[in-house]
Automatic annotation (TrEMBL), chain A:
Source organism of the structure: Tritonibacter scottomollicae (Epibacterium scottomollicae)
Gene coding for it: glyS
Enzyme class (EC, first level): ligase
Annotated compartments: Cytoplasm
InterPro entries named among the record's database cross-references: DALR_anticod-bd, Gly-tRNA-synth_bsu, Gly-tRNA-synth_heterodimer
Entry-linked SUPFAM superfamilies: HD-domain/PDEase-like
Pfam families for the chain: DALR_1, tRNA_synt_2f
UniProt KW keywords: Aminoacyl-tRNA synthetase, ATP-binding, Coiled coil, Cytoplasm, Ligase, Nucleotide-binding, Protein biosynthesis
Coiled coil: 513-547
Protein name (database record): Glycine--tRNA ligase beta subunit
Record-level GO BP terms: arginyl-tRNA aminoacylation; glycyl-tRNA aminoacylation
TrEMBL record, chain B:
UniProt keyword terms in alphabetical order: Aminoacyl-tRNA synthetase, ATP-binding, Cytoplasm, Ligase, Nucleotide-binding, Protein biosynthesis
Subunit structure comment from the entry: Tetramer of two alpha and two beta subunits.
Primary location recorded for the protein, binned into one broad class: cytoplasm
GO biological process: glycyl-tRNA aminoacylation
Reactions this protein catalyses: tRNA(Gly) + glycine + ATP = glycyl-tRNA(Gly) + AMP + diphosphate
Positions in coiled-coil regions: none
Compartment list: Cytoplasm
Organism encoding this protein: Tritonibacter scottomollicae (Epibacterium scottomollicae)
Domain of life: Bacteria
Annotated GO CC locations: cytosol
Family the entry assigns: Belongs to the class-II aminoacyl-tRNA synthetase family.
Record bears the keyword Nucleotide-binding: yes
Protein name as catalogued: Glycine--tRNA ligase alpha subunit
CDD domains documented for this protein: GlyRS_alpha_core (cd00733)
Length: 755, 319
C-alpha cells in the first residue's frame, strides 16, 4: 500500500471554480485508478487560488493480474482461422486448450493480463485527467497547446511508502512532475521538496498557505465575528461571499474598517450590495439600530504594519465607490421627488427592449397595468391602486442605482416610490411584485402587490407562449417555470379563486396580437430596406445577389400576407388566446404536480382531479386533491376504489361487447337481490349528497358521501352476479354499475388512480 | 521571450504622474520590450493600437510597450468627477508568446513604480476580457492592490475572429487611477503631472481641466451627428475598398496588402461610433448593429494582416 499526493500548481484559479475543480480532480483520478484495478482507502481534494491538491490513501501498488478466457475456432478448423485467432489473442498454439461444447470441440485461449505498477497507471490517468479536465472555461498560453484554467506551472506527483517516496514521472508539454511546490506568492515564494502529504501540508502552513478551504472559511468567519463583537457589532451573514473570499486567499488576514460618516445614511441594502459586489467586503452592522457601520475585508498576507496600509487603501477605494452610490441615490431621489417623478423613468423605458419579438418594457408595463386592474377585484385590491402600482413597479429600472446594481431592482423602486409620496401599498408592490422568486421565497399577501405580481407573471408567460419560446428540457432562459410556480403559490397561499383559463385566453390574445403586429412592422421595415438597397445598387447588384434578395423579399411578403389573412382580418383576436391558453394551462398543471408531489400528494391523485371540470381554479383543484388524497389513504377509500375499478371493468367490457352505453340508470322494478336494492338506494342518496357537497366545494362531505358507498358496493359484488342469464336483469345491473361510475365521477376521475 | 534585463527594484516613491510613466517605460525597456509611441489616431483603449490588435495575430514573436491616450466620450464629466475622464492614458504591454514568468514581470513593474510588496495586498481576481468590437476575447484577471483595480491582465485567445497562436500576454494599466493611488491624490485634476518641486509645477488639471470641459461639451451636445454618421459610412466603405484591392501592387509589382491602412479605417469607425453613442443618437437595438459592423471591419483587417509578412505569411504558408 502507498499514499499518493498530487498538486497541480497554476496561476490564480477563479474562486468560483475551485471547489468544483477539486471534486472533478478527485473523481476523475479515483475513477481512472479504480478502473485500472487500483483500489484505495480514501481520497481528499483540497484547493487554494493557486493549487488543486489530491491526497489518496492506501492505494494498491500493483494492479492485479487479470485472466480472461476467449473462445476460438472449432478443432479442425482451417489453419488460417486458427492462426488469426492466435494473433488476436496473443498466445501460441501450444497454449490453446480443447474443450467440448454442444457444437463440438472448440479451442479456448486463456489470456493473462499481468498487473502493472501503480506509478505507470497513475501517470496515464493523471495525464488524461489534465488533458481532458472539465473546466467551465479554459485557455492556452505561450506557444503551447495545452489547455488549463490559467497557465499551469508545476505538477507534484508523489507515491509515498513506509520506506520512502517516489516521484511519478510525467511530462506534459514540457511540464515535468516532481516533488516540489512553492509557498505563498509574497510571504514565502521559495520552492521546497516534500516527502508525503503530512510533510506537504505542514511545510505549506509554515510557508503561509492554508490548504483546506473550509479551514480558511472558518478562520475568516471566526476572526471577523470576534472583531465585530469586540466593537459591539455583528457581521452580516453571507455564505456565498465567505466561500468566494476564501477562494481568493491562501493566507487570510481579516481587517475591519470604518465607513465614512457621510455614507451611513444610504439604505443598508445599497451599502451591502456595493461593498459586496465591488470590493467583496462583509457588512458589519449595529444590532441595536440595524445600521451598517463598518466593513470587513480579507487580505492575503500579514504585513509589518499589521495591515494598516492595506486597510487604508481599501477604505479609500470604498469611499470612492460609495461616493458613486451616494451620487446615484441622491440623483434618483431628486428625480423621484420632482414634478416629473417616476413617470419620467417610465417614459425612457419606451426605448428599452424587453424582447425583440415582444416589444419595449413600456409596452409591457402598459399590458401589466391593464391586467392588474382586471385582477384587482378578484384579489380584493383597489383597481386604481393596482393599476398605478403596476405602472411604477418597474420604473426603477431607469434609475442610476439599478443600472449600477441590477440586483437592487424592486427594492429601490420601493424607496423611490416612498420618496415620491406614493401610497404605501403602491410602494410595497414595487418591491414585492417580483416575488416569489424561488420555492422558498416569501409570497406577497398585500392585495395590491398580489395583483401586480400575478399580472407581471401572467404577462411574461403568455408573452413567451405567444412567440413560442417555451422551456425545453433543462433550458429555461426566461425562468418561465419559476414564473408559473410563482402564480401557483400566489393563488394557493392567498386562497384565490382565479379562473386561469379566462385570464390566459384574454391576455394571451392581447400579447399574441401585439407580437404579430410587431413582427408585421419589422417585416415591413426589412422589406423597405431591401427595396432601398436594390434601387441604390441597381446596376451593381450581381445576378446571384439579385436572386438572393428577391428570394428574401418573397419570403417576407408571404409571411406578411399570411399574418394579414390569418390573423388581422378575423374579427377580434380572441382566437389567438384560445390557441395558446390550453397548452399554457397544462404547463401550470405540470408545475403544480411537481409542487404538490413535494408536499406528498400522489401524482395520480392530482391527475384524477385535473381531469375534472374547473381545473383552472387552482385553489379548488388543490382542495379536491388534498381531500381525495386523504380519502384514498383511508380503508374506505382503498376499498371503494377497488369496487369502482371492478364496476368500471365489467362495464367497459360489456359496453365494448354489446356496443351500447349503459347509462340510462337502473330501474328498481328489475331488482332481484337485497344487496342490489341496497346499492340502488345508496347510490340514489349518494348522488344527491355528493353533488350538493361538490357544489358547495365541501370536499370532506363529498368524500364522506363516497365512504358511505363502500359497504353497499362491497356487499353487491359479494352477493350478486352481474352477468345474469336474464338479459333484462343483466342490463339493469350494468346500468347500476354505470351509476357507480357516474356518482364517483362527480368527485374525481378515479380511473386515473393507480392500485 | 524577451531577454532579461537587470531587475529594477526602485524603492523611492515617485513624485509625479510623468515619473510613473517614465519608470514604466524604463522597466519594460529593461525587460526587452520595444518602447513604442502612442498611435496617432483616436482610440477607445490601448488594445486598439495596431501594435496590439494586429501584432497579436500570426506566429511572429513580439514584445512592445507604450502609452496610449484613449478616448471614451461617454465618460466625460467636464473635469469635475474625481475619477472619470473622456480622455485618459493607458499603459499597454504586449508580449508574444506570453512568457512563463509574466506575473512576476508584472509585479516587478509595480515595484518599479513604488508599490512596496511587503506592505500592500496584491490579488489576481478573475476577469475575463471580451471586446465585441474587435471580435476578441481572452482570460485573465483584474489585478487588485488593496482592493483597487490597478491593471487588467489578459491572455489573448482570439482576436479579429482568429485563434491566437502563440498566445499573447497583455497588460493594461489605467495610468491616472494607478498614479492617483500611488501619489495619494483624491481628485485627478489635483495630481502633479511633473515634479511638484520643479520651477514650473503643473498639475493634471492645469493641462486637462479645460480640455475635458471643451470635449465634454462637444461630445455631448455639439458634434454634428449627420456628419459623423456620414464619416462612419465612409470609413466603412473605404476599409472595404482598401481590402478589395489586388494583392500585387500594379505600380511596383510587389505584393502589398494594405492591412494597416484598412485597420485605420476600422479604428476611425469605432471612434465615430463612440461619439455617436455619446450624442445619444444610437438606440439600444442599433447599438448592437453598429458594434457588429465595426467587428466585421476588424475581422476583415485581421484576415488581411495574417496574409502579410508581419502577420506570419510566408511563401511556404501560401503553398
Amino acid at each position: 500500500m502507498a499514499d499518493l499526493l498530487i498538486e497541480l500548481f497554476s496561476e490564480e484559479i477563479p474562486a468560483r471554480m475551485q471547489a468544483r475543480a477539486g471534486e472533478d480532480l478527485k473523481k476523475r483520478m479515483t475513477d481512472g485508478l479504480v478502473e485500472a484495478g487500483l483500489t484505495y482507502a480514501g481520497a481528499h481534494a483540497l484547493t487554494t487560488p493557486r493549487r488543486l491538491t489530491l491526497a489518496i490513501e492506501d492505494l494498491l501498488e500493483h494492479s492485479p493480474t487479470v485472466r480472461e478466457e476467449r473462445k476460438g475456432p472449432k478443432v479442425g478448423a482451417p489453419d488460417k482461422a486458427i492462426e488469426g485467432f492466435l494473433r488476436g489473442a496473443g498466445v501460441s498454439r501450444d497454449q490453446l486448450k480443447e474443450r467440448d461444447t454442444p457444437k463440438g470441440a472448440v479451442y479456448f485461449a486463456t489470456i493473462e493480463k499481468p498487473g502493472r505498477p501503480a506509478a505507470e497507471i497513475i501517470a496515464e490517468v493523471l495525464e488524461d485527467t489534465i488533458r481532458n479536465f472539465p473546466w467551465p472555461k479554459s485557455m492556452r498560453w505561450g506557444a503551447g497547446s495545452l489547455r488549463w484554467v490559467r497557465p499551469l506551472h508545476s505538477i507534484l506527483c508523489l507515491l509515498t511508502r513506509e520506506d520512502g517516496s517516489e516521484v511519478v514521472a510525467l511530462n506534459i508539454d514540457g511540464i515535468k512532475s516532481g516533488d516540489s511546490t512553492a509557498g505563498h506568492r509574497f510571504m514565502a515564494p521559495a520552492r521546497f521538496s516534500v516527502t508525503g502529504f503530512e510533510d506537504y501540508a505542514a511545510k505549506l502552513k509554515r510557508a503561509f498557505v492554508e490548504l483546506e478551504p473550509k479551514e480558511r472559511e472558518a478562520a475568516i468567519w471566526q476572526d471577523a465575528t470576534n472583531q465585530a463583537f469586540a466593537s459591539g457589532l455583528e457581521v452580516v451573514d453571507d455564505k456565498g461571499l465567505l466561500a468566494e473570499v476564501a477562494g481568493l486567499v491562501e493566507w487570510p488576514v481579516v481587517l475591519m474598517g470604518s465607513i465614512d460618516a457621510e455614507f451611513l445614511d444610504l439604505p443598508p441594502e445599497v451599502l451591502q450590495t456595493s461593498m459586496k459586489e465591488h470590493q467583496k467586503f462583509f457588512s458589519v452592522k449595529n444590532p441595536k439600530t440595524g445600521r451598517i457601520e463598518k466593513f470587513i475585508t480579507v487580505a492575503n498576507r500579514e504585513t509589518a504594519d499589521d495591515g494598516a496600509t492595506i486597510l487604508a487603501g481599501n477604505q479609500k477605494v470604498l469611499s470612492a465607490r460609495l461616493a458613486d452610490a451616494k451620487f446615484f441615490w441622491e440623483n434618483d431621489l431628486r428625480i423621484a421627488k420632482s414634478e416629473v417623478g417616476m413617470e419620467g423613468w417610465l417614459e425612457s423605458l419606451g426605448n428599452v427592449t424587453f424582447h425583440n419579438k415582444l416589444g419595449t418594457q413600456a409596452a409591457r408595463i402598459d399590458r401589466i397595468a391593464a391586467l392588474a386592474r382586471e385582477i384587482a377585484p378578484i384579489v380584493g385590491a383597489d383597481a386604481d391602486l393596482a393599476e398605478q402600482a403596476a405602472k411604477v413597479a418597474k420604473a426603477d429600472l431607469s434609475s442610476e442605482m439599478v443600472y449600477e446594481f441590477p440586483e437592487l431592482q424592486g427594492l429601490m423602486g420601493r424607496y423611490y416610490a416612498e420618496a415620491a409620496g406614493l401610497p404605501q401599498d403602491v410602494a410595497n408592490a414595487c418591491q414585492q411584485h417580483y416575488s416569489p422568486l424561488g420555492p422558498s421565497d416569501e409570497v406577497p399577501a398585500e392585495p395590491v402587490s398580489v395583483a401586480v405580481a400575478l399580472a407581471d407573471k401572467i404577462d411574461t408567460l403568455t408573452g413567451f407562449w405567444a412567440i413560442d419560446e417555451k422551456p425545453t428540457g433543462s433550458k429555461d432562459p426566461y425562468a418561465l417555470r419559476r414564473a408559473a410556480l410563482g402564480v401557483i403559490r400566489l393563488v394557493l397561499e392567498n386562497g384565490l379563486k382565479l379562473c386561469l383559463s379566462i385570464l390566459l385566453t384574454e391576455h394571451g390574445a392581447k400579447v399574441a396580437y401585439k407580437a404579430l403586429t410587431l413582427e408585421h412592422q419589422n417585416l415591413a421595415t426589412e422589406r423597405s430596406q431591401l427595396l432601398k438597397q436594390i434601387t441604390k445598387a441597381q446596376e451593381a447588384l450581381a445576378d446571384k445577389d439579385r436572386e438572393r434578395v428577391d428570394a428574401q423579399l418573397s419570403v417576407i411578403s408571404n409571411r406578411m400576407v399570411h399574418i394579414e389573412e390569418n390573423y388581422f382580418e378575423q374579427k377580434g383576436f380572441i382566437h389567438l388566446g384560445r390557441k395558446l391558453a390550453p397548452n399554457l394551462l397544462s404547463f401550470f398543471h405540470d408545475r403544480l404536480k411537481v409542487f404538490l408531489r413535494d408536499q406528498g400528494i400522489r401524482h395520480d391523485v392530482i391527475d384524477a382531479c385535473i381531469a375534472m371540470e374547473g381545473n383552472d381554479d387552482l385553489t379548488l383543484l388543490v382542495k379536491r386533491a388534498r381531500a381525495l388524497e386523504e380519502f384514498m389513504s383511508s380503508e374506505d377509500g382503498g376499498n371503494l376504489l377497488q369496487g369502482f375499478k371492478r364496476a368500471n371493468n365489467i362495464l367497459s367490457q360489456a359496453e365494448e361487447k354489446d356496443g351500447v352505453e349503459y347509462s340510462y340508470g337502473a330501474d328498481k322494478k328489475f331488482i332481484e337481490d337485497a344487496a342490489e336494492a341496497a346499492l340502488f338506494d345508496a347510490l340514489a342518496a349518494g348522488e344527491g349528497a355528493i353533488s350538493s357537497a361538490i357544489e358547495a366545494e365541501d370536499f370532506a362531505a363529498a368524500m364522506g358521501g363516497m365512504a358511505a358507498l363502500r359497504a353497499p358496493v362491497d356487499a353487491f359484488f359479494e352477493a350478486v352476479q352481474v352477468n345474469s342469464d336474464n338479459s333484462v336483469v343483466r342490463r339493469n345491473r350494468l346500468n347500476l354499475l354505470s351509476q357507480i361510475r357516474k356518482v364517483c365521477g362527480q368527485v374525481a376521475d378515479l380511473s386515473r388512480i393507480e392500485g | 521571450m524577451p531577454p532579461k534585463g537587470k531587475d529594477m527594484t526602485q524603492t523611492t516613491a515617485p513624485r509625479s504622474f510623468q515619473e510613473i510613466i517614465l519608470r514604466l517605460q524604463t522597466y519594460w525597456a529593461s525587460k526587452g520590450c520595444a518602447i513604442l509611441q502612442p498611435y496617432d489616431m483616436e482610440v477607445g483603449a490601448g488594445t486598439f493600437h495596431p501594435a496590439t490588435t494586429l501584432r497579436s495575430l500570426g506566429s511572429k514573436p513580439w514584445a512592445a510597450a507604450y502609452v496610449q491616450p484613449s478616448r471614451r466620450p461617454t465618460d466625460g464629466r467636464y473635469g469635475e468627477n474625481p475619477n472619470r475622464l473622456q480622455h485618459y492614458y493607458q499603459y499597454q504591454v504586449l508580449i508574444k508568446p506570453s512568457p512563463p514568468e509574466l506575473q512576476e514581470l508584472y509585479l516587478g513593474s509595480l515595484q518599479a513604480i513604488g508599490v512596496d510588496m511587503e506592505l500592500h495586498d496584491i490579488r489576481f481576481v478573475e476577469d475575463d476580457w471580451e471586446s465585441p468590437t474587435l471580435g476578441a476575447w481572452g482570460l485573465g484577471w483584474e489585478v487588485w492592490c488593496d482592493g483597487m483595480e490597478v491593471s487588467q491582465f489578459t491572455y489573448f485567445q482570439q482576436v479579429g475572429g482568429h485563434d491566437c497562436h502563440p498566445v499573447s500576454g497583455e497588460l493594461t494599466y489605467g495610468l491616472e487611477r494607478l498614479a492617483m493611488y500611488i501619489l495619494g491624490v483624491d481628485h485627478v485634476m489635483d495630481m502633479p503631472f511633473n515634479d511638484p518641486q520643479s520651477p514650473q509645477p503643473l498639475s493634471y488639471g492645469d493641462i486637462f481641466k479645460q480640455t475635458e470641459e471643451e470635449y465634454a461639451r462637444w461630445n455631448f451636445d455639439v458634434a454634428n451627428t449627420e456628419v459623423l454618421l456620414r464619416h462612419f459610412e465612409e470609413a466603412e466603405a473605404e476599409c472595404a475598398s482598401i481590402l478589395s484591392q489586388e494583392h500585387i501592387d500594379p505600380k511596383t509589382n510587389k505584393r502589398i496588402i494594405m492591412a494597416h491602412p484598412a485597420y485605420d479605417q476600422c479604428i476611425k469607425a469605432s471612434h465615430i461610433f463612440n461619439l455617436l453613442d455619446a450624442r445619444g443618437v444610437i438606440s439600444v437595438t442599433e447599438r448592437q448593429a453598429y458594434i457588429g459592423r465595426v467587428r466585421t471591419l476588424a475581422k476583415q483587417c485581421a484576415d488581411a494582416f495574417v496574409q502579410t509578412e508581419a502577420g506570419g505569411f510566408t511563401n511556404e504558408s501560401a503553398a
